[in-house]
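Whiteboard transcription, Tuesday session. T.W. wrote the structure tokens on the left side:
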């Protein structure tokens, strides 16, 4: 069978562009497909952990970003439902890779430019399904200008996010509400932010979800909230209404300035990684990033895992081309390697979230203990996080 491309990648976000760059650099004919033209808005918290920044350095993405588009973070502030507050300065465990805030509109465009610079191609079109031959996925169908076309490839990588068409077409079942977050975010100006510090605020209504404040500059920030989908359904929470209710509570209301304005308020679903089993590889296809349910279930952070799974999938794809084997049995080494890299942190996050769900006193007790036993706090987070080395103040 003659193929149009070596690899077709649905979705040009972090996972898709990372995979495309790695594959194109090795001389493969790679096409990235996304329904949006870039740069485009992408709903997100915009936070990049040091681990994610390390991967972005490896992908040479900062060559395509301006310094004015980057805001550095050097501390995290936690607030519990009973208003215990703990501000923790930190150091990155990765050389030349700190915690950064970069709007996804700019970040994803830079990632795509990096992939194109390495030889990948881009097509603005909507992926509508997969093409099969003798039961094996060997391409995708696309809609472009009201026309339906078929594109074929030896390998398809689904990097098309939470509502992945590739995953759905491949037969991946919808994950239950307990493994999904719903979030809403906006950009606020005229609000007193903590300089170079991000904030996580838990409330009794959201826990194990949280409200976040990620500053993008003086008195401006990406702010939002996220909570488990089953809690959203059970309590019939109106995300937009609850967003403004929290913003008007004393803890935050006192920080609102006279010229306060909020723009770009949007909601989106977040598929969380967990200990459940979900298919991520098929004959002729792999799922990466949010499409593969790789988001950290505690923090809701998905960019690092998207980049990492995209790069791991690319490495396995290169091995598959070496031996001309694109069977699910061969491609499973992608999932095995991804779990080896990401599994330990995901497992710890799962257990921490379960503790907050089923033992409400755990969070308060933990932060009381953290404030009174700095050494124990540092040791705990050294196991929970591979990115930060926390330094508690006296």
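and on the right, the sequence the group agreed on:
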């Amino acid at each position: 069978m003659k193929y149009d491309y070596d690899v077709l990648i649905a979705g040009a976000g972090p996972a898709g562009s990372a995979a495309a760059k790695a594959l194109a650099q090795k001389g493969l004919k790679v096409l990235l497909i996304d329904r949006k033209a870039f740069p485009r808005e992408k709903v997100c918290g915009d936070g990049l952990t040091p681990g994610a920044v390390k991967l972005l350095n490896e992908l040479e993405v900062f060559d395509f970003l301006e310094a004015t588009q980057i805001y550095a973070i050097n501390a995290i502030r936690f607030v519990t439902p009973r208003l215990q507050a703990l501000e923790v300065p930190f150091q990155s465990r990765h050389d030349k890779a700190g915690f950064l805030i970069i709007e996804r509109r700019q970040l994803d465009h830079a990632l795509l430019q990096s992939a194109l610079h390495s030889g990948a191609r881009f097509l603005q079109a909507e992926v509508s399904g997969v093409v099969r031959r003798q039961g094996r996925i060997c391409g995708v169908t696309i809609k472009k200008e009201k026309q339906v076309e078929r594109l074929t490839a030896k390998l398809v990588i689904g990097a098309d996010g939470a509502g992945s068409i590739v995953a759905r077409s491949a037969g991946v079942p919808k994950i239950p509400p307990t493994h999904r977050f719903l979030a809403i975010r906006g950009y606020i100006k005229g609000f007193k932010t903590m300089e170079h510090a991000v904030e996580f605020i838990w409330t009794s209504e959201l826990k194990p979800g949280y409200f976040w404040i990620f500053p993008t500059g003086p008195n401006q920030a990406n702010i939002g909230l996220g909570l488990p989908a089953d809690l959203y359904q059970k309590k019939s929470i109106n995300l937009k209404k609850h967003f403004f209710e929290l913003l008007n509570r004393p803890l935050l209301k006192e920080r609102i300035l006279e010229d306060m304005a909020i723009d770009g308020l949007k909601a989106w679903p977040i598929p969380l990684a967990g200990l459940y089993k979900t298919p991520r590889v098929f004959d002729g296809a792999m799922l990466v990033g949010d499409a593969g349910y790789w988001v950290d279930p505690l923090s809701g952070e998905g960019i690092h895992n998207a980049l990492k799974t995209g790069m791991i999938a690319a490495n396995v794809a290169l091995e598959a081309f070496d031996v001309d084997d694109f069977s699910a049995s061969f491609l499973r080494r992608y999932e095995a390697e991804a779990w080896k890299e990401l599994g330990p942190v995901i497992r710890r996050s799962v257990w921490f979230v379960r503790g907050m769900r089923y033992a409400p006193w755990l969070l308060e007790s933990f932060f009381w203990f953290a404030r009174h036993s700095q050494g124990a706090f540092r040791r705990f987070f050294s196991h929970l996080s591979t990115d930060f080395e926390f330094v508690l103040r006296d």
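Someone added at the bottom: The longest strand covers residues 256-271.
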